[in-house]
Design a protein that fits this description.
The complex is a heterodimer of chains A (about 210) and B (about 250).
Chain A: H1 2-19, H2 26-38, H3 48-78, H4 93-96, H5 98-116, H6 131-139, H7 142-169, H8 176-205
Chain B: E1 3-9, E2 18-24, H1 33-46, E3 69-70, E4 73-74, E5 95-99, E6 108-110, E7 113-114, H2 117-126, H3 146-155, H4 163-167, H5 174-185, H6 194-207, H7 218-222, H8 230-244
The chains are: A mainly alpha (about 210), B alpha+beta (about 250).
Keywords (chain A): Membrane, Transmembrane, Transmembrane helix
InterPro entries (chain A): Cytochrome_b-558, SQR/QFR_C/D
GO cellular component, one term (chain A): membrane
Chain lengths: ~210, ~250
């Protein structure tokens, strides 16, 4: 769970950084998309490195979801009779919503891949083979931007607890200071990643990216 | 003060239980929570009803016998044991819900009493050190660094009450295990069995039906002894080292 989670942290950071190319205009953005496919050539075939990364991500996803299912089932079995009255003392909202948040992200991920990668659905009905135009057409629809922003809120919560939890699971938070650093890392990643991702849809809707 | 108590009543381990409501008058704010239950039981006995069964022993916060989920919080609203919780933490007219620890590893014996022998079996699996019998060794022959000794002492205060399990949304006993593993692992005497200890204790923990830890932190907040969450990190670190060594 922790290791596959760290893989995803690395992924969302680079994905977010790449998305910011949208601010440099159509040419730069599409060039970047093409560059991802030619990366590693001629040692690797066209899209070679991209597929290596994709396989790594798919394996991580299977491990991550698999671990989550095992943990959820164990938790369910560990408390057969629920409390009639339950009050939480000192736990973050994000830590208690990891399962629902994860499920939200999974549903979003399915749509996101259909939207931009597998099928390339243009909800506005425009062209689909130009990554930049597909993106602008999608985020020009206010309800699409809203769905993406909601997903980013779920991602922020997931990263807020997930970062700390991964470091704790790997045994890297053995002192109070290390624990506060891990918690701070969770905050920073949540804000930077979810915030960075949200910039593109917001500024597309506002007409800055067009 | 006057209280409405909603208490879990269950005749025995196999009988179905239910919440029952009782009215109790004349409760003093200076009473401990257990003394309040004593008063309730006297009232029930005088009415010919069966008294409420609950665990207690030292009543001074050091034995770990008392339990109780009070208004949805392990040992109630203060960070202490139920025996050291006083009625001044409640208001006149309050409704108080009292439930047993809820965990598959802690089956209900009767009413509010649960069987916590799963903790004993986890200790038996690895929460010990092996020492030769005979005359006591010279105390200074095994030096322990002060910071490590202090951390060991701090986490050795765990009384095994089970509040960590009761408050954990996953029903995990990781804080309890982490406290024992940190306590023994910080001291020189705990080193020979350090890595077999963590593997054996975790295996027993899982076999007892406790859940997996997702680092939510309710356990440390509920712990009457203030065992910090970093003992779970220590547990994970020792487990990682043990697995690396192929144990």
């Amino acid at each position: 769970m922790a290791v596959s989670g760290l893989v995803f942290i690395g992924f969302v950071l680079s994905h977010m950084y790449g998305n910011l190319k949208a601010f440099s205009g159509e040419l730069a953005f599409n060039e970047y998309a093409e560059h991802l496919r030619t990366l590693g050539e001629p040692l690797l075939p066209y899209s070679g490195l991209l597929w290596i990364i994709r396989v790594g991500l798919i394996v991580s996803l299977v491990v991550h979801v698999g671990s989550a299912v095992v943990l959820a089932r164990r938790a369910h079995a560990a408390r057969p009779v629920k409390y009639a009255n339950r009050k939480y003392k000192n736990s973050s909202f994000s830590s208690r919503t990891m399962r629902w948040g994860g499920l939200t992200i999974l549903v979003f991920l399915t749509w996101h891949l259909l939207n931009f990668t597998i099928v390339k659905i243009n909800p506005a009905g425009g062209e689909t083979n130009n990554p930049y135009r597909l993106m602008v057409d999608t985020f020009d629809l206010w309800w699409m931007t809203l769905i993406y922003l909601a997903a980013m809120a779920a991602l922020a919560l997931h990263l807020h607890h997930g970062t700390f939890s991964a470091l704790q699971t790997l045994g890297l938070t053995n002192t109070a200071a290390a624990r506060s650093r891990a918690r701070a890392a969770g905050w920073v990643l949540a804000v930077v990643v979810a915030g960075g991702f949200s910039l593109v849809p917001i500024f597309t809707l506002l007409g800055v990216i067009s | 003060m006057r209280l409405t108590l909603k208490i879990w009543r269950q005749q025995n381990a196999s009988a179905p239980g239910a919440m029952k409501t009782y009215d109790l008058d004349g409760v003093s704010t200076d009473m401990s929570f257990l003394e309040m239950l004593d008063v309730l039981n006297e009232q029930l006995q005088s009415q010919g009803e069966e008294p409420v069964a609950f665990d207690h022993d030292c009543r001074e916060g050091i034995c770990g016998s008392c339990s109780l989920m009070i208004n949805g919080q392990a040992h109630g609203p203060e960070v202490t044991t139920t025996c050291q919780l006083h009625m001044r933490s409640f208001k006149d007219g309050d409704t108080i819900t009292v439930e047993p620890w809820r965990a598959a590893g802690f089956p209900v014996v009767k009413d509010l009493v649960v069987d916590r022998s799963a903790f004993d079996r986890i200790i038996q699996a690895g929460g010990f050190i092996s020492a030769n019998t005979g005359s006591a060794p010279e105390a200074n022959s095994v030096p322990a660094p002060r910071d490590k000794a202090m951390r060991a002492f701090d986490v050795a205060t765990c009384i095994g009450c089970g509040a960590c399990v009761a408050s954990c949304p996953n029903g995990s006993a990781s804080l309890f295990m982490g406290a024992k593993i940190t306590h023994l692992g910080e001291l020189p005497q705990g080193q020979p069995e350090r890595y077999s200890r963590v593997v054996d204790m975790v295996a027993q923990h899982d076999a007892e039906g406790f859940g997996g830890c997702t680092n939510i932190g309710e356990c440390a907040a509920a712990c009457p002894k203030g065992i910090p969450l970093d003992v779970i990190s220590q547990l994970n670190r020792d487990l990682r080292d043990a697995l690396r060594q192929g144990r």
